[in-house]
Amino acid sequence: MKSFTKIFFSGLLVIYSFTLFGNERVAKTDIFPTNQDTATFAAGCFWCIEEQFRHLAGVEKVISGYTGGKTKNPTYKQVCSGTTGHAEACQIIYDPSVITYDELLAAFFVAHDPTQLNKQGNDVGTQYRSAIFFHNHRQKELANQYINALNEEEAYPKPIVTEVSALKTFYVAEDYHQDYFENHQDQPYCKFVIQPKTEKFQKVFKDKLKH
C-alpha cells in the first residue's frame, strides 16, 4: 500500500462521559474546551480495533460499543444477528496535542481492509462494516478528503467502501467486551486473529506507541 497523504485539520474538542439512562448504556460527547477529543471508528470486530488503538501514544481510552443502527440499547446478540443496523465500533478518547485526528485516520486505514464491504476476513455482516462516525463537520470533511486522496492515489487495489456518517447514539457494549484481548489472551480468536493483526499494526506505528 502506498504511503498516506497527510491532511491536517483541527477538530472541535470534546469531553467524553458515560451516562446511564435507566438500563441504557449511552456514551455522550459534550463540546467543551478540554485537552481531550473523540473519534469513533468501525472496522470489523471491535475487539481487534480496541487492542490496536489502545497502544498508541495519546490515546487515553478505547470503548467498545454499537452505533449506526436503529435498535435502542442493543445487546451483543442482537447486533450479531445483523438486524439492528448497528456496527461494532470503538470510541477513541485521545489527547490531540499528542496524536491528531489525521494520525488516527491513518491508523484506521492500516488497522483493517477498507475495501471489504460488510465484512472483515471471516467476520461477515453489516455489523462488521467499515465506517467513520464523525462528531462534527471538521471530522466529516477530513475523513472524506482522506478517502478521496487514497482512492486517487490507488493506495488499495480496489475502491474504499468506508461509510462516513454522523454519529448519533453510541451504545457502550457489555462489560465483558471491554479490554477483551487483555482479559482473554488464551482464546483462539485472540491468539490467531487479534494478536497477528495487532503485531502488524504495531510494526507500522512503532514510533507512535506508548512506552
TrEMBL record:
Keyword Cytoplasm: no
Catalysis: reaction(s): [thioredoxin]-disulfide + L-methionine + H2O = L-methionine (S)-S-oxide + [thioredoxin]-dithiol; L-methionyl-[protein] + [thioredoxin]-disulfide + H2O = L-methionyl-(S)-S-oxide-[protein] + [thioredoxin]-dithiol
Keyword hit for Oxidoreductase: yes
Reported function: Has an important function as a repair enzyme for proteins that have been inactivated by oxidation. Catalyzes the reversible oxidation-reduction of methionine sulfoxide in proteins to methionine.
Lineage top rank: taxon: Bacteria
Residues of the active site: 45
Family, per entry: Belongs to the MsrA Met sulfoxide reductase family.
Domain Peptide methionine sulphoxide reductase MsrA: from-to ranges: 38-191
Pfam families linked: PMSR (PF01625)
Organism expressing this protein natively: Parvicella tangerina
EC number assigned by the record: 1.8.4.11
InterPro entries: Met_Sox_Rdtase_MsrA_dom, Met_Sox_Rdtase_MsrA_sf
Keywords linked to the UniProt accession: Oxidoreductase
Single Gene Ontology MF annotation: peptide-methionine (S)-S-oxide reductase activity
Name of the featured protein: Peptide methionine sulfoxide reductase MsrA
Enzyme class: oxidoreductase
